[in-house]
Amino acid sequence: MKRLRSCWREHRNTCILVIILFAGFFLRLFYIGNIPGNSTLFSDESFAGYEAYSFLHYGYDSMGYVRPVYLYTWGSGMSVMQSYCMIPFVALFGLTTFAVRLPQAVLGCITLVAFYFLAKRIRNEKFALVATFLLAVMPWHVMMSRWALDCNFLPGFLVIATLFLLKGTEDSRWLPVSMLFYGLSLYCYAAAWPVMPIIVLGSVIYLLAVKKLKPDRWLLLSLCILLILTIPLILFILVNMGYMDEIRSGFISIPRLSHFRDNELSMSPGAVIKRMYDTLSMFVSQDDGRVTDVTPMFGLYYKFSYLFIIPGMACSVYSGIREKKRYPLETVIWIQLFSGAILGGLIEVVFSRINIIHIPLIYFCAVGVYELIEYFGGKMKYLAVLLYTASLIAFLGYYVTYYDDQFAVITHHGMQDALEYCVSTEKEDTTIHVISGTNYPDILFYMKFPTDEYIRTVKYTESVDSNLGPLSFGNVDYSCVINDRLPESVNPDDSYICNHDDDEGIEFMRKNGMTLQYFDYIVVGDFSK
Question: 323 pLDDT band (50/70/90 cuts)?
């Protein structure tokens, strides 16, 4: 027993870190293929997964672009990094929900480790344990790590890049790794592009100014790496602003989108002020009205966490002004926080679109908790652990039950089974008519539709808008969804699909004498009986 106590005292912090990481990994990986949505994917997840499947098996995406720097998906595009990272997982596990969500979950786990070392480098080991514990149990990071939205890759890449940047203050040879991740983060989410120069160059300039970085060959090499990674995206912007033709080659592709979302960026003072006010209001309530982003009951970081975040920010300012920059590297976190605030004034914000701000806020929450522990002593430590652990248990109870059901509704659970039923009963020359209940990427994903056949057979609407959608592809008729109308006639050999609450669609099936098959939130009508 004495030996165990001695071992615990000697390796106490290491053991605590292992426990925190084990719990954090479990929260992000357990049942990742089933929760949320009872194994049903959000349409952006389906599209990212299908593009990974296309790259793996065909060498190009669903529009025929080889190694595009930005996906054409939806016509208005989607960032490409997550799809590229999905490729080995799809190769190992097939085109499944598990394979699509696993890269994001793994990155979430890596982020926990990187955040620990980042916080330790900025302050100390005890603070790093507090910070890692809070990130591990925060609803935002748990939910984000289990949802394969393209933009969700950005926070993890930024944490890793920032960690190596600060490691570069002691050994410049780490700087190229930092700039590699900063450069790759540009391929994670385009909405953050306007403030990325502030985050990267602002941090570098600050560290040079306080003599934490040296202007040596490693820094020059790092900036060259960043520039090389930036050039394809600069060309992408020029192509989509009409200054260049799109680039298609066997090595890299720079597509011209049908709708370039540059109009989403507003620079007028009135719009900026309004958006910043809306962003602040949204963060105060910790609710943006989107089920996928947040649970209103628990918020992003548990609603009581502002009691720690605000004092934490105040303590950071105090240590910077009154204590002669006790933690000089902490300014890098402030730069990311201010960049997130600026972004909130430039774009229409929901929490997933401004996700660069969440890590800094959780960091300052940790500062608040840590300073209270330091001031009031050890008992405050146990109180904080109890408070957040109890909140986590309550959140998990909600997340795996009511939230899982909510996610299943908005992702149209049952579509995979419905499509499998249609395929199993199809006759020669049969057509699957989609009346409602899904987006076309879900159909491509669940049917594992051959990409070459999709490109060869797809027919798009003549007027191409921001949400590009096909009228049909292969044996799938999607025109009812695109044109928002019911089929003009029925074919006894065909199958018809609609959402369970589409009363008009269900009535159409019944009037035409079809047999209805229910698959959770999806209804299939056919003439099988």
Answer: low
Residue with tokens 């040079």: 208
Name every residue whose Cβ is closer than 8 Å to that of residue 20 and which is 6 or more positions away in sequence: 112, 129, 132, 133, 136
* pLDDT (mean) for 134-144: 96
- Spatial distance between the Cα atoms of 177 and 180, rounded to a whole number of angstroms: 5
What distance in Å separates the CA atoms of residue 165 and residue 181, rounded to the nearest whole number?
10
How far is Cα of residue 446 from the mean position of the Cα atoms in its chain?
A: 21
Residue 234 phi/psi, 5° resolution? -65, -45
In sequence order, what E strands does 110-204 have? none
Mean pLDDT of 46-50: 95
Query: Alpha carbon of 396 to those of 16, 159, 338: distances in Å?
Result: 22, 25, 31
Cα 41 to chain centroid distance, Å, stands at 13
For residue 199 the two structure tokens come to 């985050």
- pLDDT of residue 468 exceeding 80: no
Torsion of CA 29, 34, 40, 46, to 10 degrees: 30
Report whether pLDDT(177) > 90. Answer: yes
Specify the pairing of strand 522-526 against strand 515-519. antiparallel
- Say if residue 382's pLDDT is above 70: yes
- pTM for the structure as a whole: 0.93
Strands 432-434 and 495-499: parallel
Compute the distance between CA of residue 380 and CA of residue 366 in angstroms, rounded to an integer.
13
Whether the pLDDT of residue 346 is over 70: the answer is: yes
What would the two tokens of residue 153 be?
Answer: 């890759």
Compute the distance between CA of residue 56 and CA of residue 91 in angstroms, rounded to an integer: 7
523 DSSP β-pair partners: 498, 518
- Both tokens assigned to 226: 């960043």
| Alpha carbon distance 492, 114 (integer Å) | 58
Buried b / exposed e over 232-250, threshold 16 CB at 10 Å, is: bbebbbebbeeeeebbeee
165 and 203 in contact (C-beta within 8 Å)? yes
Query: What is the DSSP code (8-state) at residue 97?
Result: H
SS3 472: strand
Q: What's the mean pLDDT in 434-455?
A: 93
Cα 349 from Cα 286, distance rounded (Å):
13
Instruction: Please report the DSSP string for 386-407 in residue order.
Output: HHHHHHHHHHHHHIIIIIHHHH
Q: pLDDT value at position 464?
A: 46
pLDDT at 161: 97
Q: Which residue has the tokens 């909130």?
A: 344
Q: Provide the terminal-to-terminal Cα distance of the chain, rounded to the nearest Å.
A: 73
- CB contact at 8 A, 155 and 359: yes
367 pLDDT above the threshold of 90: yes
Question: Does position 459 have pLDDT exceeding 60, yes or no?
Answer: yes
User: E strands within 72-219?
Assistant: none
Domain ranges for the chain, please list them. Answer: 2-407, 415-526
